[in-house]
Structure formats: C-alpha cells, structure tokens
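Hi, here's the filled form for the chain we discussed.

Project: internal
Contact: R.S.
Residues: 159
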Amino acid sequence: MSNDPFAPIGAQPGEPSKAAASDWEIIVPVPPGAKTAPNKHRKLGKPTKVWAYTDNVGKLLGYVARFDGPDGKQFRPLTLWRSKSGATTEWLWTSWPTPRPLYGLQKLAERPSAHVVVAEGRRRPIAPRDSYRRSWQLPARMEPIPAAKPTGHPCAVER
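And the returned structure, exactly as it came back:
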C-alpha cells in the first residue's frame, strides 16, 4: 500500500493484471438481480466498514471497504465487472475506471443549489452534512462552489 494519501486506488496484489483487466468491462450501475457482492476479502477477511457508492438517483455503483489489520487500515474498492465475451460477471476488488464516482452523489443531486465541499475520504463529509443541513461552512478565503447539475452518467456532473 502506498504511503501517499492522494495516490489513486488501483488494482491490488492478487487482482487481475492489466492484460487480464482489458478482458473485462465495468457494470455501472449494478443491475437489479446481480449476484451478491462478497462480504469478505480472501486475504484481508471481513471489512470493518463498507461504504456503498450510488449514482445521482440512488442506483448502486459499487463499494469501498475498510480493513483494519496488523499493517494498519487498508481500503479496497469492490466493483462489478463483465467479461467482454459476456459469459461471466464477477465482483472484483478493483476500482472504477476514471472518472471515478464521488461518494454521496445522490445526496448532492437531492440538493442542487447546495454548496459543495470535496474532501478526501468518506467519513469526513458525513459530519458536516449531518450537522449543517442548510449549508456547509467554508473557510473565509474559499469561494463556495454551487452544486453541479447531474447528467445521465453516474460519474459525471454538468456545470
């Protein structure tokens, strides 16, 4: 695991190689009736916390799981993929391709005139959202950014 907190989340050891990954395509949103996502990682065990990522209308895009182990905390994205031949679908412990979705897109879409603070991590945005229902407080020198208008794409917004 990288010590850089801003390094992109990518395929982890034991996941498909770049060559193998080219044989798969992500399925977003996850369709109703899709196979259930695994509830544990084969090496890291059961996660201590799981965040569901949804699109602007609440359809599931995938998950990010936190694992607390002897090496500290580790995060693993969990997304649904289909083989390009269409023969199989699998939940893989690998990230979305870019552009990656923001956590809380549905909440953002529900309040299109709200100010937005983009922060690293999933835990931090929950506290201001719950504490400041009407608007979020920004440092004095920062300009508020109006919420973007959702497009049809689960990972994109339009200004």
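Let me know if anything looks off before we file it.
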